[in-house]
Amino acid sequence: MSANNKIDSIWYTRCPVPTPLGLAAREGWISSEFVQDGITINTLQETQNPELLESHYDHSLPHSFRQGGNVPAIWAKARGTDTKVIGLNWVDEAQLIVTLPNSGISKPEDLKGKRIALPKNDISIDHQRASALRGIVVTLEVAGLTSKDVELVDIAVEKQAPTIGWSSGTRVAYAPEYEALKNGEVDAIYVKGARGYESVDKHGVTIIYDVRNHPDPKVRANNSAPRPITVDAALLRDRPDLVVRFLSRIVDVAEWSAKHEAETVAYIAKESGSTDEWVRKAYGNDVHLHQGTNLDAEAIAALEGYKDFLLEWGFLRSDFDVNAWIDPAPLAEVFRLKKKAA
């Protein structure tokens, strides 16, 4: 449709993790891109309205973009929400199965017959449970085991007010799981990311396995990777020009972050409620070199594989075609325009 279709505002949201969208927003690029258009840029990170915040998970807001964990994005699509994936970013993060030092468990094979915590949140889509289950299943498979060889123990997580991000009141990192571990209710738990790695040091636990070390990226795929950029499909149909401009500023992050290592790490630390030290441990010293946006076949295959995992384990209402969910046109146009301007 014509660019004359008037848009007064655009919404975006991102998770408290490394995302190119978050970096672009931090640098003010998103707002500055549209200031001359009279388009108001709104972010869910600055609202306390619970109905609006739910769009972080169900992507119900019109004229909105999202980048973050892929579980809510996949779940929303499986429920029939009309979105399109227009880009992917891959940052491998620490995915740790940990235990107490005196447990007698030192490797994945030792988990046979043991009890492993599985967090249970009373929210629309339990992305933390899905993430933990994936990490547990992969770790067991490394040892030639399955979920039937262990006891998965539900650990209830106290429901809190709707929020997005550690800094705005999200639960203390893995507190219920650590309580269960230290009380002897379970033998091992799953933690991830910068705050997960920091918790390992704080609680003095032993790392049994880090899924990040698995050689196959499709197996490493979890809620954290690949992280899709999704857009309200109606906005893409009505104003593809605005979508291309929004996406272009996200794409710009790759070059910027590669030249600004310290600033990139500091941003991720602030976003995740951690420190530079734990960001580097959780995401690697080269995290600033992994802020690119693409639609690589390998990343798409990994996204599809993880969708299949979520379907198999009952997290999704129905199946869908991941390739049909992806629209490569906006990213292709971004790269075309950048090449033309070079």
Give a written overview of the molecule.
This protein starts with 8 loop residues before the first strand and ends with a helix. The strands form three sheets. The protein has a five-stranded mixed beta sheet with strand order 2-1-3-10-4, with helices on both faces. The protein has 17 helices and ten strands. The longest helix is centred in the middle third of the chain and has 16 residues, at 127-142. It has helices at 20-26, 29-34, 50-53, 55-58, 70-78, 127-142, 175-182, 193-203, 217-220, 233-238, 240-251, 253-259, 261-272, 276-283, 297-312, 322-325, 329-341, and strands spanning 9-14, 40-43, 64-67, 83-89, 95-99, 115-121, 151-157, 189-192, 206-210, 227-232. The protein folds into two domains: 9-90 and 226-341, Periplasmic binding protein-like II (D-Maltodextrin-Binding Protein, domain 2, 3-Layer(aba) Sandwich); 95-220, 3-Layer(aba) Sandwich (D-Maltodextrin-Binding Protein, domain 2), CATH 3.40.190.
Keywords:
342 residues, alpha/beta, D-Maltodextrin-Binding Protein, domain 2, five-stranded mixed β-sheet, three-stranded antiparallel β-sheet, 43% helix
Condensed summary:
By secondary structure, this protein is an alpha/beta fold.
